[in-house]
Design goal:
binds adenosine-5'-diphosphate
Length: 762
């Protein structure tokens, strides 16, 4: 079956809206994110750098302040030996001012104590001999008892002109953290060393305390990790830093910073080398606190970026959505026009390209409507042409067939009879072709409507067999008809059209088979609710159809092989009509075939099961062909064509009627008024007054019986509309030309009977 040409388009997963919004929003997102993040990152980094610089400065401030104190202590060591009397302490023979050595030592001891007190940061302040033995001291008890000959820094001091700063150590007397500063001097060729034990906290505490914050501690450490300055004095003179895993980083440069992890917290470390010493100031801060402002800037920046992204998305959406909505409206409009709805209109109140498009579409719709109107007019003209042509061809055909029939009734002999039989067969074939062409045009124009009447399937199949029996027998073929017993006897459908399909297929089967058999089988394919699907199969043992040919034989005017026409004749319309009829019956048709083995044409149709009983057809038992079916029946034959008049009069007479002839509608009306007519056969197309008008006038004439007299149309107009027209004009039946003798006989019998009943009611 053909798929509908305009299947409604399913909504697409990625419509225009998505296609526009996704990239636009994507671009906006990435651009805003990239620049926003870069700005935030730069701002954050600036703040981080500033914090780090501040931290290094803290370390430097503490470091430099201590460096200054140390420099002063170095100066103390240089000038103290110059104080009169102090340097002389290195000479045991010194008796200059104090002949008593003990009094001299006591005097110098007191002097040193006073000097140390003035400086304020010495625990002891003393002079040692070049052997390391204390000669004079601010703490008199140390004289002669304190021996520093085993201290490395003493030997270093002895070896240089510069002052030497010792590693920090704990005082044996007070337990305070100390650092010794030593300066060699010479007195009259005798060497001695001036030493001061600095109380470390006294020179560091102020600076360290000044810089310290709850989140920041500053330390001064030696390169070996011994603590020289710390707010927590317990740490002083310990090697607390030597064990820290990050401590080696502090020694790598003169100044710098890094982050490290301690006690599960992130810390920022800045360090500063005290020039000319092995000391380093180290500042340790909580990263969270120090970087807090930078983090805050970052968070605020991210929120701002996010908000601007949302804003951008909103703006893009509000710009794109109305455009895609209007495009969707235009698409819906085009779709509804495609579905055949010509009344749906669209008008966008826009001044841009979409507005222009909507106006163009509207203009297109109006043009389309005009074209449809024109096409419909053309189709009407074509239908009229077909009706006329059918009439024009059928009228002479009627004459040919009727004359042949009449001539055969006279029982001619020999060659004459043979010729007449050939004329009859040829005209029947010609009629079949004309019928095919008409049928095809009707189906194509959608004008073919199917009947829905109950009928006996077996009778229909039998009548197909009856029609084909002779042809099959002539070719020596076995004709086999079977209807499956599970199909209801009566079904509802169009028996005439169904028979037409079966005859088409069986005719082909016989035509293309030279030996073997042709069979028609009907079986039940499927039952769905109260609908049955029947399967018809026409099987032959003929020439078969090749796969390529199978593709095209259902197309109109197509024959499997051009030479077919020459050998077998045919128009190539049979299967095309059959296919369309099958489709109208909600089924499908297909073929299976093997070349030189035979073909099987299958088709399905949907029918409803019929009632249990069907009154026997009134005409089922027709009298013999020559038998009279009526007596003394005055029949008015209205017909303008002489030849047809002659044939009809002969036929009616042979069937027992008394015909009188009127040449047109007007005469017919006059005849009706003047005679007691029993039955009227009325042609439709006639000069002066046509049959439809005449029938209407007779019905309206007011003469007794004018409403009841049977009027049967007898016309070459074979289309359904013609039947409707004649019924509307008040006629009782419709016979088509060329006149089928059996049909005429049946009509005469049925309506003659009714006419009699009318005259002499029982
Ligand atoms: P035609 O009037 O020419 O028979 P159809 O439409 O009935 O037109 O058939 C079209 C063509 O299909 C035929 O000309 C023939 O070539 C092929 N055809 C139809 N039925 C048979 C068959 N039973 N065996 C072989 N060929 C067939």
């Amino acid at each position: 079956m053909d798929t509908p040409r305009y299947a409604k388009t399913a909504p697409r997963a990625f419509g225009l809206k998505a296609k526009l919004l996704i990239p636009l929003i994507g671009i906006a997102l990435s651009a805003l994110f990239a620049t926003g993040l870069a700005i935030v990152r730069i701002a954050e980094q600036g703040l981080i750098d500033a914090s780090q610089e501040k931290l290094i400065n803290s370390a430097a401030v503490v470091g430099n302040s201590i460096l200054e104190k140390i420099a002063r202590a170095r100066a103390d060591m240089t000038f103290t030996p110059d104080v009169p009397g102090v340097a002389a302490s290195v000479n045991p023979e010194e008796k200059e001012n104090f002949p008593d050595r003990a009094a001299y030592v006591a005097h110098i001891n007191t002097l040193l104590a006073k000097l140390g007190e003035v400086c304020g940061y010495y625990e002891t302040f003393y002079v040692v001999s070049d052997k390391g033995m204390t000669l004079v001291c601010s703490m008199p008890s140390a004289v002669g008892t304190l021996d520093i000959s085993n201290r490395a820094w003493f030997h270093e001091a002895m070896a240089t002109d510069n002052s030497i700063l010792s590693e920090p150590f704990r005082s044996r007397i007070t337990g305070d953290a100390l650092m010794a500063i030593a300066q060699r001097f010479t007195h009259k060729d005798i060497r001695g060393v001036m030493v001061g034990s600095i109380q470390i906290h006294k020179i560091t505490h102020a600076a360290v305390e000044l810089e310290a914050k709850p989140w920041l501690q500053v330390y001064v450490v030696t390169d070996q990790g011994a603590v020289v300055a710390a707010l927590d004095e317990k740490l002083l003179a310990t090697s607390a830093f030597a064990a820290k895993p990050w401590f080696p980083s502090v020694l790598e440069a003169d100044r710098g910073q890094f982050t490290m992890q301690e006690d599960g917290e992130q810390k920022l470390v800045a360090f500063y080398h005290l020039q000319g010493t092995n000391l380093r100031a180290v500042a340790v801060a909580d990263a969270a606190h120090l970087l807090g402002p930078a983090r805050a800037v970052r968070n605020i920046g991210l929120i701002a970026v996010l908000l601007s992204v949302l804003l951008a998305c909103g703006i893009i959406y509000l710009t794109v959505a109305p455009v895609t909505r209007d495009i969707q409206r235009l698409a819906d409009f085009a779709e509804s026009v495609a579905q055949g709805d010509m009344e749906h209109e669209v008008q966008l109140a826009r001044q841009d390209e979409l507005g222009t498009l909507s106006r163009s579409l509207l203009r297109m719709l109006h043009t389309l409507k005009q074209m449809i109107t024109r096409a419909e007019e053309a189709t009407r003209a074509k239908s009229e042409f077909l009706a006329n042509m059918s009439h024009e061809i059928r009228t002479p055909m009627n004459a040919v067939m009727g004359m042949a029939h009449l001539a055969l009734q006279a029982n001619p002999e020999g060659r004459q009879r043979d010729a007449l039989l050939k004329i009859r067969r040829a005209s029947e074939s010609l009629l079949a072709i004309i019928n095919d062409i008409l049928d095809f045009s009707k189906v194509e124009a959608g004008k073919l409507e199917l009947d829905h009447v109950p009928f006996r399937l077996a009778d229909m199949v039998q009548s197909v067999g009856d029609m084909l029996e002779e042809d099959a027998k002539r070719k020596g073929l076995v004709l086999d008809l079977r209807v499956a017993p599970d199909i209801p006897a009566l079904v509802v459908g169009d028996p005439v059209r169904l028979k037409q399909i079966c005859i088409n297929l069986c005719n082909n089967a016989i035509k293309f088979t030279s030996k073997g058999s042709v069979s028609l089988r009907v079986s039940l394919w499927e039952t769905q609710g109260d609908e049955l699907t029947l399967l018809f199969s026409v099987v032959d043992t003929g020439i078969g159809i090749s796969p390529e040919q199978r593709e095209m034989i259902f197309d109109a005017f197509a024959q499997a092989d051009g030479s077919t026409t020459r050998r077998y004749g045919g128009t190539g319309l049979g299967l095309a009509i059959s296919r369309r009829l099958v489709e109208l019956m909600h089924g499908s048709i297909w073929v299976e075939s093997e070349v030189n083995q035979g073909s099987t044409f299958h088709f399905t149709i949907r029918v409803a099961p019929g009632p249990r009983d069907l009154p026997e057809a009134s005409c089922s038992e027709l009298p013999e062909r020559t038998e009279k079916v009526v007596e003394n029946l005055l029949v008015l034959l209205v017909e303008d064509n002489d030849l047809n008049q002659e044939i009809a009069v002969e036929l009616l007479r042979s069937m027992g009627a008394d015909p009188v002839v009127a040449n047109n509608g007007e005469e017919a009306v006059r005849f009706w008024l003047e005679h007691d007519i029993d039955l009227i056969f009325m042609d439709i197309q006639m000069p002066v007054m046509d049959g439809l008008e005449a029938a209407r006038r007779i019905r309206a004439s007011g003469k007794p019986g004018s409403a009841a007299v049977p009027i049967i149309a007898m016309t070459a107009n074979a289309m359904n509309v013609d039947r409707e027209k004649s019924r509307d004009a008040g006629m009782n039946g419709h016979l088509t030309k060329p006149i089928d003798c059996d049909e005429l006989r049946r009509a005469l019998q049925d309506w003659g009977q009714k006419a009699r009943e009318r005259v002499t009611p029982a």
